[in-house]
Amino acid sequence: MEDEDRKQRIREWYQEYSDAIYQFIFIMIGDHEQSKDLTHDTFLKAYNHMGHFKGETSDKNWLYRIARNVTIDFMRKRKPIRYIADSLKAFPSNDHSPERIIQLGEAEGQIYHALSKLKRSYREVIILRKIKELSIRETAEVLEWKESKVKTTLFRGLQAMKIQLQKEGYDHETI
């Protein structure tokens, strides 16, 4: 593929998918500025590895897979204590100011806070299936799992999220 063709394709993908990729990364790490940087890194990596893209998955799923790997690499490089502290800052449990409620909505804020407390595999599958609304097959492609693992992990993740929400005093039957 010619360099100009690769640049055009990346521009098109960025136009179409950058917001979704950014949201996915932000939900994973809870840091706006770092999410912007990792989104940029995702598209840069896609550009550099476009020759390896065989079209076996959709463009979107390939980009989600890259975003996931970029985010995991970032999280591994950071010190775990700092990552946990940053995550808690991004999702404060007792910030119920009117501004915050207006910004996220009280229920949504509590859900994101509970989600931030789950283990990574649960967070990833819940974000992809329930927030980004990918199919089971698409989620399996992004995570490089079998479809049965997606189903099992999603079920367990949603159960863990219900328990976490109950621990935090949130009792809502729609979760």
Write structural notes for this entry.
With 175 residues, the chain is mostly helical. The chain folds into two domains: 1-90, Rna Polymerase Sigma Factor, Chain: A (Orthogonal Bundle); 106-169, Winged helix-like DNA-binding domain superfamily/Winged helix DNA-binding domain (Arc Repressor Mutant, subunit A, Orthogonal Bundle). It is 76% helix and 0% strand. The longest helix is centred in the first third of the chain and has 27 residues, at 3-29. Mean pLDDT is 82; it is low at 80-93.
List keywords for this structure.
175 residues; mainly alpha; Rna Polymerase Sigma Factor, Chain: A; Arc Repressor Mutant, subunit A; 9 helices; globular
Overall shape: globular
Give Rg in angstroms: 17 Å
CATH topology of the largest domain: Rna Polymerase Sigma Factor, Chain: A
Low-confidence runs of at least 5 consecutive residues: 80-93
Helix and strand topology:
Layout: H1 3-29, H2 32-48, H3 59-77, H4 80-90, H5 98-104, H6 106-116, H7 120-131, H8 136-143, H9 147-167
Task: Summarize this structure briefly.
The protein has 175 residues and is mainly alpha-helical.
